[in-house]
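Bug report

Summary: structure tokens for Catechol O-methyltransferase differ between web form and batch submission.
Environment: batch mode, default settings.
Steps: 1) Submit the sequence below via batch. 2) Compare with the web form result.

Sequence submitted:
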Amino acid sequence: MAARRTAGRTTRRADDLGYGREDLGEGGSDEAGRYSWTRNGMEILVTAAVGPNTTKKDISASFAMRQVSIAVEGEVLFDGIPGCELDVDECFWEIDEDDDGNKKLVIHLAKRGVTSRWPETLLKN
């Protein structure tokens, strides 16, 4: 485990503690099963199945440092305070396909701080 000296003390680097780029692993899903999310280092990937006729015009997304809102065809997927502050310029969404050819919405939520770790829930509220 890497360590560094800071003001006469030895401290562990954030990456060694599972923060920043090392914030990896399962995230969870919402209670209704509409989306799931995973921790991928400096970003959180949220995945939601969408209908076969869903287009970019059907997606409404708003990213702010302390607020995120996603709706599909007018129905709110999630809306609230994200688990970490967001780097808004690096957040985006895309429509993709899963391994079976079904359409899915993939939302990329980029964390603002390299020493941050996403909590157990996607949203704080």
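Above is the batch result. After comparison, the two runs are identical; trailing whitespace caused the diff. The chain has no helices and ten strands. The chain has one domain: 25-125.
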